[in-house]
# Entry
Amino acid sequence: MTISRTLPALAERRRFYRLALRLAARSRRAILRRIARGFERSLKADATLVTEADFEAELALRTGIRQAFPDHGILGEEFPPLHPEADFQWILDPIDGTLSFTHGIPFFGTILALHYRGRPLVGVIDHPGLGLCYGAGLGLGAWRNGQRLRIRDARVPDLEREVISAGDRSRFVQCRSGAAFDTLVRRHPHVRGYTDCIGHTLAAEGKIGAVVDYGVRPWDIAATRLLVEEAGGRYVCAYHGRQDGQPLYGIIAGKPTVVRWLLTIFRSPRHTRG
Amino acid sequence: MTISRTLPALAERRRFYRLALRLAARSRRAILRRIARGFERSLKADATLVTEADFEAELALRTGIRQAFPDHGILGEEFPPLHPEADFQWILDPIDGTLSFTHGIPFFGTILALHYRGRPLVGVIDHPGLGLCYGAGLGLGAWRNGQRLRIRDARVPDLEREVISAGDRSRFVQCRSGAAFDTLVRRHPHVRGYTDCIGHTLAAEGKIGAVVDYGVRPWDIAATRLLVEEAGGRYVCAYHGRQDGQPLYGIIAGKPTVVRWLLTIFRSPRHTRG
# Structure
């Protein structure tokens, strides 16, 4: 292993983590200002919604990253990639859950993460509408508004009292099959649709047993693995091909026992460790 | 029509409304105190969860009502009915969404309503975990934290961009059939599981297109009709028989166009105006 393949040291990861929290605060201010001023929504080429808030928040993040680390790469949802060959890559989704955002439902969030040669070092999900910021650093733990997160695993007899969050059925159809969704809602009494990043943060807190999220892009899940694993949970990711030039994934994350149970009922060889 | 059948005058309804808001604040304080102190959960005879917070909040509400109106009836989830023959009936659910509450998911709420001879005069849903209080009085409008709510109806071409909230599939099975749930999640791309009263308040705000909620008891829906109708929405309620001595209902409420579309896809003669 060459020196360039070694992971950045703890002190450096801590520095990245603190920057990520400052960036999240910056993007949060941009989003809250835009909510106060009002915004227009428009349709992107792929028929998904976008607003001025998406652009303003991503610009705020990009500016902050380029000031601090001009040679780091940036992969964001709204602008072309920067330095795609760099070892350090910031992955950004300024507003995950645009449908919620444009409807005034406060369950959207800003996702940002720093990966080093594909390995996540720092992950942050910020919910401006809820005043909640979740962050994790590799070896640094997972935190919510400065409070340490520790997932307590579920016991098998209590499985049916756990809440499982799943995205829309159409997302299952996109990646697997509607049958997987239908099996899940028949087998488990509490399947809730806390979609987008709110499902990921509820899983990292251990408030829900697990989140199942299909049809997600790299930026949708860029922070989730670290948040869940650093909190003591299990994260499983499967690759489901490419769409519009971007890879498409499905994830299952949360309490280890609940994730194991979900893998059993889905029984799919395509689910591999992320 | 005799004098006793006339509805209380506007000034009196306003007085009831103000009391309901004060009661909600009282119950909110009891719940937040209990969250700070910690609580035990236990199973009731019907296998649903209950905590000390449920009892303390309902006691706070009952005490306040009896001080103000000793002859009013009270129907609450946790204690036996008081003056069940009275014209004025307060209907209480101290913690709707106990599963969310015990898991630390902030989407639970306190429901209270005053009905006069079966007709709702006042309805309040308070979310202590979100700092949001929704209230409506007959002819007094619907409000969130003092801000007037006005639902803007959806246009038919935009239907598929509306979010529809539906409870767990098991609740559809209880009242109608799993097929109704399966049809809904196949026909509509954005079905989210904002169950319990959070779905009702999101509908009253017009943030979601509509909420579909089956297997609900009188206290679960006691405030919803007024909140939605006073905000300019449509509310439809169907009776689905009795269980454990209490009637069971299904409701569809929200933007008129979305409610109409849902009634069409369910095509059930059992859905009648509430």
